[in-house]
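Hi R.,

As promised on Friday, here is the backbone we talked about, encoded as structure tokens. Could you run it through your design pipeline when you get a chance and send me back a sequence?
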């Protein structure tokens, strides 16, 4: 294992942070815009959670 992969194993690379922040902001705006009890909001928030999960795991694999 190289020093680079050790550096990014536990922390996401900082230059990918904006991707997650943008997705989180969009999800927060959706929850504000739609009614909290709406099934559409639930589905969309689940989708954004899934995108964040892919974002994190994908870049972990790149780092290793």
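Update: got your reply. Pasting your designed sequence below so it's all in one thread:
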């Amino acid at each position: 294992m190289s020093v680079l992969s050790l550096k990014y194993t536990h922390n996401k690379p900082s230059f990918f942070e904006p991707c997650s922040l943008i997705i989180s902001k969009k999800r927060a705006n959706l929850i504000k815009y739609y009614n909290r009890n709406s099934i559409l909001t639930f589905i969309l928030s689940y989708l954004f959670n899934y995108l964040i999960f892919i974002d994190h795991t994908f870049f972990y694999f790149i780092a290793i």
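One thing I noticed while checking it: The two ends are 8 Å apart (CA to CA).

Thanks again,
M.
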